[in-house]
User: Fold these one by one.
Assistant:
Number 1:
Amino acid sequence: MSAPWWRTSAFYQIYPRSFRDTSGDGVGDLEGIRRQLDHVAWLGVDAIWLSPFYRSPMADFGYDVADHCDVDPLFGSLEDFDRLLAEAHAHGLRVIIDWVPNHTSDQHRWFQASRSARDDPQRDWYVWRDSPEAAEGQPPNNWVRAFGEGPAWTWDERTAQWYLHLFLPQQPDLDWNNPQVQAAQHDVLRFWLDRGVDGFRADVVHLIGKDPALPDDPPELAGTSRVGFHDEPRTHGLLRDIRATLEGYDGERTMVGEVNLSDTEALVRYYGAGDELPLVFNFVPLHAPWTAEAWRAVIDEIERCYDRPARWPTWVLSNHDEPRHRTRYGGDERIARAAALLLLTLRGTPFLYAGEELGLEDAHVPPHAGVDPGGRDGCRAPIPWTGEPDHGWTSSEPWLPWPPEADHRNAAALRADPDSILHRYRALLAARRASPALREGELSWLHAPADTVAFRRSLGGDERLVAVSFVDEPREVAVPGDREIEVASDGVGDGEPFTGTLAPLQAVLLR
Ligand code: GLC
């Protein structure tokens, strides 16, 4: 039995606002994505994930959904979506889209109805509560919201109750204890599944189950956003129902859940017994520093916890919520390249974030120019496609400043340079595709000196070795047998015998 496609694919995340603008308003759009599909297919990924493009007042840049089943005019129309989906499929790319189950925009018609009156039939679609009896005027519990400071509750004057929002006040939490909410969100899934999407990225999906008693957070956690520790047993039953909806199609539809827990053991339980999430993001590696010690520990922990067939790791270095990995690791492109080699050779499904294949760093966004309530503007800078003043966009004034060096660090310039990081990503993705060991094989450690990490991937007769140096000086790595460099992160020595010496901050894939 062959592995399902989502285990052997490399995914590429597109943040629509920042990918490419074709309408001249400085914000990327679906047509811009369609026109760049050649780039994505040429790169060699297997699937794309589109961050939200739904109708939204954009308080959280689309993660505040006002209509799950329509495209915001900023991005285009449903027809544009259908065209994009069809062309992506024609390019051999699967498409998953963001699904935001935990909350909606306060402008969503569900919330508009819910807040209109206490006896509105949709009142209990959201989480409304009174102040505690003993504490008039105080929020119902001590939960705080993510982004900025303050309680996770907002007082509604008209109906004189509080509503819950684990994020912005403009993002009220739905009440998933209500079967009508469950049914409505399953309908959203079916709307897009019927349109032909290959699956979903489920936004903060670990938050959907909530104990109706909404108990206070313990004192040691009070003042910390629940997003990082909310781990409620009720969520698992909801995930089994969601999986059943996906399975009701052709067995080929998937979901990757954003579960923001930093405890790997807790996180892997969201795979259930193969009946909950098909894939779960793991951000523990993303938060690890670039040291051999940290990465050995991360990989060990993952090998230990992903110990059952249902559990398959995922790897992410960058996304729209975190500083890009090149920036996080200090800006040295050699490190960004070595990290890419690791990302694409570890056991599990890799997720790339558009622009990392160009070695982009975060844009410098001066505080007064920042627009995101979570301060995440830098990693959302627009992608420079060319060296022209508008960098291939229709407007030279995009919604955020260009990333550093866009005049020469753009897709056209890097494509013309065979030694560029872009060509390294492409070579790695091609090597992955060609090797069953890299796609599906076991991982085992090789003996390696301090400041380096080395492992073997193997499946049947297929085998690859990987060695990564985390230090800015040469290192000797004794690998078993005579090996040839298949892909070196710096492009030096591809196809040549491996001498046993890693150049400073170099990573190599050997066969
Ligand atoms: C997820 C998204 C993030 C968003 C938040 C609230 O963490 O990745 O961008 O702000 O959920 O929806």
Note: The pocket of alpha-D-glucopyranose is lined by residues 60, 63, 100, 167, 203-204, 258, 320-321, 374 (CB under 6 Å).
Number 2:
Amino acid sequence: MISVPKGTKDVLPQDSYKWQYVENAARGIAREFNIKEIRTPVFEHTELFARGVGETTDVVTKEMYTFEDKGGRSVTLKPEGTAGAVRLFIENGLANSPLPLKAFYIAPCYRYERPQAGRLREFHQFGIEVFGSAEPEADAEVISAASLFLDRLGIKDVALEINSIGCGSCRAEYNKALKEYFAPRLGEMCPTCKERFDKNPLRMLDCKEEACKAICAGAPKILDHLCPDCRAHFEKVKSLLGALGIKYTVNPDIVRGLDYYTRTVFEFVSTSIGAQGTVCGGGRYDNLIEELGGAKTPAIGFAAGLERLLLLMENTGIEIPPAGTPDIYIAGMDEASRLKAFRIAGELRAQGICAECDKMARSVKAQLKFADKIGAKYVAVIGENELANGECAIKRMSTGESEQVGSGIFPPI
Ligand code: ATP
Ligand code: MG
């Protein structure tokens, strides 16, 4: 017996309506915010993520599904959606389209992580990217799209945390302050942090080791090192969120796990799904497009993890409307009436009605039992009399009431 790979999950027929519900909510939000869908390949050149996501991130150093294809190229299954979206934006000259350009995706992502609740090796993200605006209005709109999406799903148990991690110039100052703080404590920190100390001290703040976390708690805060422009930008984002009635707290410890962020970063966090509480994360990335070879273009986006959202909805008792059941089951008895049932089912389907009939050579009794099991709303039985007089009774299963209909007259569903 071959089993599903570790860290991946099947979606079963009886559960797929939950996924469709969440995906439909995402598409609804995209429509209301005038955001168009994009689709990028599941795999990209490894270099895109190495450069895009960042050489010092956990994602790139530990988690990528990288392999050589038969042509000897190094390719990687996408660990996140932004790098591919940026490549698409650059490669297709979308900087020449009316800006800002707003795009969304619903796509699988791959990270070689230790599987646990809310952490998988294949997971799915709904993400939005807005290219071309440096203005705080773009930040607030993107955050409000995420907020409305969670609202739409009925999720209440989630808190928005925001921070600003500044631009290149405040970051340089801040990195200096971080190095001063970490230098005398480096001996007690993990090997990864030691490496990051030289390459990217900011990333040390994202370490998951307990000893490092304790040291990081006392580190200088980026918010105390923002330049006047970044400070004003952050103030405006906060006031716009206030104007939209979106509640948030400022959490100066959010730095996010990917290197490309600048200025605004944010997370929607829940306490109902255990340690992996971040259901949605995002931020501004004003340098990424240029770093990946495009013209300097500011941008901001977010990604929400669909598995974590579904887990949160389940844990907090949010009911997802069940999938539809067949409108009608048409049962047949002998060869001739079975053929008739088969043909009626075909005609009904052509009219957009969900119709079922027997494909198991079952007795009428067994067919009716099956119709009940699959939740058919109406049942019709075609027998000799029905064939002879061109009429049959259809029974509404919820009430048990029957009514007589002529051939060609189909139930009022
Ligand atoms: P975490 O700190 O939980 O590892 P992250 O910072 O690596 O998250 P992002 O790269 O920001 O996550 O991805 C955005 C969202 O995608 C997360 O908030 C989460 O909902 C989801 N996500 C990320 N990694 C996984 C995973 N391995 N399994 C399931 N969902 C994930
Ligand atoms: Mg992670």
Note: The chain has a mean pLDDT of 94.
